Amino acid sequence: MIFEATYKDMKKAMDMMRATLSDSEFKSGNHAVTLEATDNEDVIFYFIDKKNKVEITYKLKEAKMIYEGVATCSLKELLDALKQFSKSKEVILIERDGDELRVDDGVFPESVFFLFDDEDTVIVEEVKREVLFCSDGKTLSGMLNRASLPLKKTEFPSEKLDTQSIYFSSIEDGTAQVVSFSMHQSYYEKREVDASSPFNLILSKPKARALQKLSEGMGQLTFSMSLQDERPAIVLSDDSDTVTIVLKGDYVTDGVIANSMSAVFKGLNEKRPEWAKAMDNSLDKIGKLTVRDNLLFSQDGICLSPSGYPAKIIKDMFKNGFIQDTAVVGEVEPGAVLAIADYSSNAEKIFILSYRNTQGE
């Protein structure tokens, strides 16, 4: 097997695979990636994370097949070998030589390391699928990231609990909604999508996190479900079918919890006129918050205080997609429940914080 490819193209493929692993899993060097130069001159990388049930097929965009063949190696070793070529402007040659893999650009010193046994070859089977919707990868990633924030601080260990999940469903008017909640925080977001079929999904915290990381770098993507009942899965693919990602798991739910929660959030719209708009004389203070500060509501508006709503939690939302110029902030229940809402032409986001830090009172 011999092929040429750019550092950027190969690095993007392997970074996507790396994103599914924890630091300790990656550093173990035990996860295999299979490189295939096919007889129709494609160069394809295959990867399976068995623990998280993620399968990735990545066809390099700028590769040139020279001699067909297959090689399987450690994902970590291949990434480490490529690091020394990060500043190279040359095309990198990848060659299998017996039980070794050679990486060379003709300028920097070559890197050679041992391959895995052929029995470790990664085999990814094709999955039949039904398209649910199309979206920009960063948009989907942002939705899932914001919905994951209320789950970050929860101390429940089991992903089976409702409070460790994100509810993701379609709405009749061509939009999709995500809902999540924990003991003291909850989140709702509705956004326009190009929907093809109705869906009601439940994403466990680990699955949502994996989906968020993987979709972030995909550009325009298609979100599908496997049609094979014995192998339920979410399938992500890009427009050119360069990338196909399969996340196995049973994600279908009845939508009752999502609809009940979304009804609660929609009811908050009636309170919007009462809330203070995020203008310079009030919420500009958010940019000055530190972890020691809190937000306190008084007759004079919003102020910084030793007591009040925890600053870090509020800042996290503004760091992850809420915009001060369009946000509305107010108390649903004075001194007890804070709401932050952000409405735009194609999306609405609402975050609820139902406790305060009373230190200093």
Textual characterization of the structure:
With 361 residues, this protein is an alpha+beta fold. It has 7 helices and 25 strands. It has a 9-stranded antiparallel beta sheet with strand order 6-2-3-4-18-17-16-10-14. A hairpin with a 6-residue loop joins strand 16 and strand 17. Helix 1 runs antiparallel to helix 3 and helix 4 packs antiparallel against helix 5. The protein starts with a strand and ends in an 8-residue tail after the last strand. 38% of the residues are buried. About 2% of the residues have low confidence.
Number of helices in the DSSP assignment: 7
Q: Overall pLDDT, averaged? A: 85
- Strand ordering within the main sheet: 6-2-3-4-18-17-16-10-14
Could you state the oligomeric state of the chains shown? Answer: single chain
Main β-sheet: number of strands, strand sense, barrel status? 9 strands, antiparallel
Overall number of strands: 25
Can you give the helix content as a percent range?
A: 10-25%
What portion of residues belong to β-strands?
A: 35-45%
- Which value, in Å, is the CA radius of gyration? 24 Å
Unreliable parts = 155-161
Structural class category: alpha+beta
Task: Name the descriptors.
nine-stranded antiparallel beta sheet; eight-stranded antiparallel beta sheet; alpha+beta; 361 residues; elongated
Summed up:
With 361 residues, the chain is of the alpha+beta class. It is built from seven helices and 25 strands.
Layout of strands and helices, then pairs:
Elements: E1 2-5, H1 7-18, H2 23-27, E2 32-37, E3 43-49, E4 54-59, E5 64-67, E6 69-74, H3 75-83, E7 92-97, E8 100-104, E9 111-114, E10 129-136, H4 137-152, E11 165-171, E12 175-181, E13 185-192, E14 194-195, E15 200-204, H5 205-216, E16 220-226, E17 233-238, E18 243-248, H6 256-267, E19 276-277, E20 294-298, E21 301-305, E22 309-310, H7 311-319, E23 327-333, E24 337-343, E25 347-353
